[in-house]
């Protein structure tokens, strides 16, 4: 079975670990979000790709969900001593090595997809990880700029990590997306997929950014295979992260049903909501999307695997 | 008193620490060798500039003489796990931060001299440290290439660090030197100097490379102020490092007298040899260079300070 998964960071990575356990023989291609990518200290940092790679490759900081296990922070401390920031982005020494290798390869002319493949040669994530695009796309968030009485756009990481999404977001802009092309292999993987899954990643800044790359949304809609998603909202709040803040920016309620309707029946065939949101099932189904209520908290790999099994079961059901 | 010092790495840095102790009120400008510079992992590494900066700024690994105190090696270990080399160049995590800042600033368009000044703003070395040039100069060493029956040129660091200077060097090539220009401030500092000193740095690959930048040798010769050097050879062997190997490559004997004659009376006014080489004094003087035999082992800062005092005393003597 060929499965394509559109993944953001932590939620996507943990779901994928469950999917690998649930479908050990499946051929899994992950299309990773690169809208979170940021240049820091002259280095190219790809938080979502790395979170997937580290999580599936056994290098992740388990509790934190991002970054490396056994991490140290000597480089960051020294950069601070030089007065070089930002200091709000937690790059560890082991993580720095990944960004140094990536930046060196990109400087040598390799596209990000080739670099990602090279990095994965070490991590052996057990999936094929492809960035959504080799082009530069950066998610910017429009926030108030009270100092000049107007608004300004900041990099997603500044909004998310530095400001903790604590200020109102007025718009989410995937800058560069319109001009970007899917990375080599993305459209082919979608065309050859038996099932396409949207893990409980952020529907706006993770899955939404991937869908903003021209050609990807259309390829999924036209693939003619079941497309099943899992709600990142449980009981009217994000399972983790601050998805509600960016949903508000695009006028979508922070409910499991509203997210399904945001994706829409043109894209989604099936949708899983948590058991606490069982009351939302009729709403989603009335929008033309098959819906089931199952436990959606990825408390451990077994729980994530069970969610993956439910998603594959729903895919089978909608294709029947 | 304005003192200009042409410095390589460890020997130059330790001498400078002594000079600062011996002449605390002097205005010291250090012209640093950049021929050892190397690009590693996409980062610009300036070993000699950093050794001077760390030594005078209190960040040096004392016993080793290069690199940072309290150093860790997580980044290097990770790069190795990615299969990215070279593994023979010992970059520590703290040191990496310096190269990251430098590379970022150079990428932003700053010349190396401005970058060095910015790095020194943190380290406060108590001297003005200027790279010999903002242009790219790389010392290459011609060695045998038995695999193809010929010879090849390797980067100085490969010869020095990876091969430990254990193979014959047939030539030392300061690649790019002919086209290079002295960095801003270099010629001005020489023109305004009261004394110019050559510390016991390597006469070929450190001081010699600086002198290979067009204009610097001439400026020193024309400065009309005492130029005094200290022998890096004591008892017919280098005090540290492998200067004898590169001296052989250019046909200079590894003796205190031969090094003085290599610099020549057109450049040098005074030369200090170690007391064990007192017999060489007449040879040096017959070449037109005032010579004194004094202890030249920099066992500690006091010993280095005493050497600096002797150098300044000889400078006074030759100008009388």
UniProtKB/TrEMBL annotation, chains A, B:
Q: Give UniProt keywords alphabetically.
A: Magnesium, Transferase
**Entry GO MF terms:** LPPG:FO 2-phospho-L-lactate transferase activity
The record's annotation in Gene3D superfamilies points to: CofD-like domain (1.10.8.240), CofD-like domains (3.40.50.10680)
**Domain of life, per the record?**
Bacteria
Give the EC number(s) listed in the UniProt record: 2.7.8.28
Magnesium recorded as keyword: yes
**Keyword Transferase attributed:** yes
Indicate the transmembrane segments per the record. Answer: none
What InterPro entries does UniProt report for this protein, alphabetically?
CofD (IPR002882), CofD-like_dom_sf (IPR038136), FbiA/CofD (IPR010115)
| Signal sequence, renumbered to the chain | none
The name on file for this protein is 2-phospho-L-lactate transferase
């Amino acid at each position: 079975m060929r499965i394509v998964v559109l993944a953001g960071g932590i939620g996507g990575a943990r779901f994928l670990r469950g999917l690998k356990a649930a479908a050990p023989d499946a051929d899994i291609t992950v299309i990773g979000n690169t809208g979170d990518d940021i240049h820091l200290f002259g280095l190219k940092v790809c938080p979502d790709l790395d979170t997937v790679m580290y999580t599936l490759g056994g290098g992740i900081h388990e509790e934190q969900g991002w970054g490396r296990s056994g991490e140290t922070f000597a480089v960051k401390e020294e950069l601070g001593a030089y007065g070089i920031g930002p200091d709000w982005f937690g790059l560890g020494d082991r993580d720095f090595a990944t960004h140094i290798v990536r930046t060196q390869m990109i400087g040598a002319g390799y596209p990000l997809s080739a670099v990602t493949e090279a990095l994965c040669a070490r991590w052996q994530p057990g999936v094929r990880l492809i960035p959504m695009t080799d082009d530069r796309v950066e998610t910017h968030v429009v926030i108030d700029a009270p100092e000049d009485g107007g608004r300004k756009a900041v990099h997603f990481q500044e909004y998310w990590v530095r400001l903790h999404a604590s200020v109102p977001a007025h718009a989410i802009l995937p800058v560069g997306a319109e001009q970007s092309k899917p990375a080599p292999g993305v459209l082919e993987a979608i065309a050859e997929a038996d099932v396409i899954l949207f893990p409980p990643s952020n529907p706006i800044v993770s899955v939404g950014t991937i869908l903003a790359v021209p050609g990807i949304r259309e390829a999924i809609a036209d693939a003619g295979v079941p497309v099943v998603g899992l709600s990142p909202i449980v009981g009217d709040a994000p399972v983790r992260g601050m998805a509600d803040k960016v949903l508000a920016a695009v006028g979508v309620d922070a409910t499991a049903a509203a997210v399904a309707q945001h994706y829409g029946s043109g894209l989604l065939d099936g949708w899983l909501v948590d058991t606490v949101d069982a009351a939302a099932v009729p709403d989603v189904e009335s929008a033309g999307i098959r819906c089931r209520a199952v436990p959606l908290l990825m408390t451990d790999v077994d729980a994530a695997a069970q969610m993956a099994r439910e998603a594959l079961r729903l895919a089978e059901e909608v294709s029947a």
